[in-house]
Amino acid sequence: MRRRATTTVGVISDTHGLLRPEALAVLQGSDYIIHAGDIDDPRILETLVAIAPLTAVRGNVDHGDWAQKIPATNVLQIDAVSIYVLHNLQELDLKPEAAKFAAVIYGHSHVPKQELKNGVLYFNPGSAGPRRFKLPVSVGRLTIEDRKIDAKILFLETTT
What we know:
Elements: E1 6-12, H1 21-27, E2 32-35, H2 42-49, E3 54-56, H3 65-68, E4 73-78, E5 81-86, E6 103-105, E7 113-117, E8 120-124, E9 138-145, E10 148-155
Parallel strand pairs: 1-2, 2-3, 5-6, 6-8
Antiparallel strand pairs: 1-9, 4-5, 7-8, 9-10
């Protein structure tokens, strides 16, 4: 009997220059990592790519020469599963179901959220950077197996 391959994708967004050790611990062991924008420090990308292959997009706070090299949208293809990545969901300019995307990953709002619309997973891991208002600090994890995506929001225990 052949064993099914499972792929783990760590999802992080809105770090705003702060890559928490708690977030790094959760991302360890990922097969891929997605950063959905508002990075604010290129060293964060260097740290993440040392863990796993990285798909990143530029957010509205990402400026400078380093940020111009990062696309506003990106696609991660894992076997037959296509994932569309952008920072601000309000700027989505395509119909993901028509384009055959299984998921849309986004950030910007700092509010963790997952929902299924027209057969497409819309997933925001929330913010892993500085706490904003009373919103939680969180990251996400996608598990892909047999062309199906299981999504989880992981709330980080932090002292600040």
